Amino acid sequence: MKQLEFMQLPRILVSTAAIVLMAGCTSPPPAPAPPHQPEAASGSVQKPGWATRNYAVGAANPLAADAGLQMLRAGGSAVDAAIAVQMVLTLVEPQSSGIGGGAFLMHFDGKTTQAFDGRETAPAGATPSLFLGVDGKPLKFIDAAVGGRAVGVPGTVRMLYLAHQQHGRLPWSQLFAPAIQLATKGFVVSPRMATLLANEQHLQRDPVAAAYFYDLQGKPWPSGHVLRNPELAAILQRIAQQGPDVLMTGELAQAIASKVQQHPANPGSLSTLDLAGYQSVVRAPLCFDYRSTPSREYRICGMPPPSAGAIAIGQILGLLNHTPAHEIAPLLATACAAKGCRTPSADWLHLYSEASRLAFADRAQFVADPAFVQAPAGDWNSLLAPEYLGSRAKAIDTRPMGHSMKAAPPGNPGGTPLAYAPMPEQPEYGTSHISVVDGWGNALAMTTSIEDSWGARLMVNRGVGLTGGFLLNNQLTDFSFAPTDAAGTPVANRMEAGKRPRSSMSPTLVFDKTSGRLVATGGSPGGPFIIHFTAKTLYAMLNWDQNAQKAIDLPNFGSLGGPVLLEKGRFDPATIHALQARGHTVQEVPMPSGLQVIERTATGYFGGADPRREGVVVGD
Questions:
Q1: What is the per-residue pLDDT for 418?
Q2: Is 323 a catalytic residue?
Q3: Has residue 20 got a pLDDT over 70?
Q4: Residue 439: Cβ within 10 Å count
Q5: β-bridge pairing 50-52 and 586-589
Q6: Is 371 left (phi over 0), alpha (psi -120 to 50) or beta?
Q7: Cis peptide before 306, with omega less than 30 degrees from 0?
Q8: Whole-angstrom distance, CA of residue 394 vs CA of residue 21
Q9: How many CB atoms within 10 Å of residue 581?
Q10: Are 610 and 593 in contact (CB under 8 A)?
Q11: Contact (Cβ atoms closer than 8 angstroms) between residue 113 and residue 106
């Protein structure tokens, strides 16, 4: 996109985006601490939604979206656009994703839906006790995450190369041009990046990161600062010319392994052999049917395990269909902090929260890397079978003013004895999402991550005199820190060498069940909240006839198995009190989703981007 065209975006978005520049009774127990958010909130900017006719790309930063648009205008495919987007995100949104992390990609070519797995793997030297301290107890999250211990083998670049071999139209090297140019000439630090950088407490410990992200006085670069990354430009140039092996073998692989193994306080075991041996996987998608009305039925497809996203979303939607949720008025005008606030009612939120408890209990019990853990009853779809969900839904109190179950046990699809212990709840962290539909109707949904904000706080640099580089993931923290329960029963998602950690990433494609035509592509960052952000948006679009932007704009909510979590300032007191009267513990917390959704319309496409972050949808 030329600078003039970029400036035609809504002025308020341009002001928040990075653009290329030249150069007697007992007291009640204390309320549980609110779950830690994957990334901090950084403000909200109203988005209009964008209509396009031929193609569209949605990404978390306008510069990244523009890179994808350049590829579509050049005749590129959805995969071509996504690769260009990811390379720019490595530069302009380094806190969330990049070439040092992993990703899941859903792709539809008009006939076939594929699930590309670029999830990180545990190094050969990883053991189940990796995150246990000398006392045998799980480490604190930050003690595990910062340093080399939690770095998994990055898979994003090899996965994208595999997808490009099958679905690319433009030369591989051409897809890197926007990112290389931006890294060389510089980009303006965006308000969100500056906010997260100012709040970060550990990144500066890494000398390479300190020299890049901070000034000579040790202060983080502010919004508006022009930042250049010549080291990343050189690395991307080599990957563009020679392919993904440049990252996974030779000089760069040695730089990655040395960075991990030589961390002074928290080294890891990642080796050059781990990097050279990594393989992406093309999996059969996990698809399920969903009927929103008697005459409207959809086919929803997402990532199978090691992602838990599609299973949990399918369970929540399926469980709700076994309750009176469809009989409840969809959205109520309420008195809340946001102007024109419309929210689901307490009656509907009660049913949704109870369905969430049941889904998250199954998630903790069953889901892990399918190369290491067998699906219940031999098939992951057993968790989505209508008969099973109907039986599980009986635990939901659907009476008027019915009460919360408080906590839900896992189910037992297939009736076989449970082989694993449920995984204790622990933090999950941030990501970025990309949605694309190209000029041929190919659709893509890709969620990409380096895990915690700023990953392992390790910046890889080859040491040839250039500033910058790229950040490494801390994705191994998605494994259960405790490998067994108190009785010694193993947790399905425990650490094992070569294993892919469980994820909540939920790139999603929606189809009309009868015609097979694409309805929408979408997803979100947000750790375990990804499941709720995506489920909310799907439900609002498919059941409440909200367009993509209006569905994204709705307040966020959900339960991870404990309290009902409501987006702070978005629900009125009456709704909160009504939930409490049903026995729910309610917490209001910031819930900064980052949804990108593109839906098919009668005249082309309509895209929505989350007001809580800097994303946009662009197209022609």
A1: 80
A2: no
A3: no
A4: 17
A5: unpaired
A6: alpha
A7: yes
A8: 59
A9: 12
A10: yes
A11: yes
According to DSSP, residue 369 is labeled: -
Dump pLDDT digits (tens) for 165-224.
999 999 999 999 999 999 999 999 999 999 999 999 999 999 999 999 999 999 999 999
3 state DSSP class of 437: strand
**Helices vs strands, H then E, count in the chain:** 19, 23
Tell me the C-alpha distance between 437 and 414, whole Å. 39
Beta-carbon contacts of residue 106 (< 8 Å; ≥ 6 apart): 113, 114, 115, 116, 285, 301, 302, 303, 444, 445, 446, 507, 508, 509, 521
Once rounded to an integer, what is the mean pLDDT over residues 588-607? 97
Assigned token pair, 398: 């659907």
Regarding beta strands 187-188 and 226-227, do their DSSP bridges make them parallel or antiparallel, or are they unpaired? antiparallel
Peptide bond before 230: cis, by omega within 30 degrees of 0?
no
Span 353-397, pLDDT tens digits: 999 999 999 999 999 999 999 999 999 999 999 999 999 999 999
Count of residues making up the chain: 620
Looking at residue 324, what DSSP letter applies?
Answer: G
- The answer to whether 544 and 328 have CB atoms below 8 angstroms apart is no
Which residues, including other chains, have CB under 8 Å from residue 454's CB and lie 6 or more apart?
94, 95, 196, 200, 202, 203, 471
Residue with tokens 């040395």: 258
Question: Which entry of 52, 90, 195, 431 is annotated as an active-site residue?
Answer: 431
Using CA atoms, how far apart are residues 295 and 494, in angstroms rounded to an integer?
A: 43
Give the neighbor-by-neighbor strand order of the sheet with 281-283. 281-283, 113-118, 102-108, 443-451, 430-437, 56-59, 616-619
Cα–Cα distance for residue pair 530/178, rounded to 1 Å: 29
Burial of 572 (0-12, 13-18, 19+ CB in 10 A): middle
Count of CB atoms within 10 A of residue 512's CB? 14
- The answer to whether the CB of 435 falls within 8 A of the CB of 597 is yes
Q: 274 by DSSP, 3-state: which?
A: helix
pTM above 0.85, yes or no: yes
Distance CA 213, CA 220 (A): 6
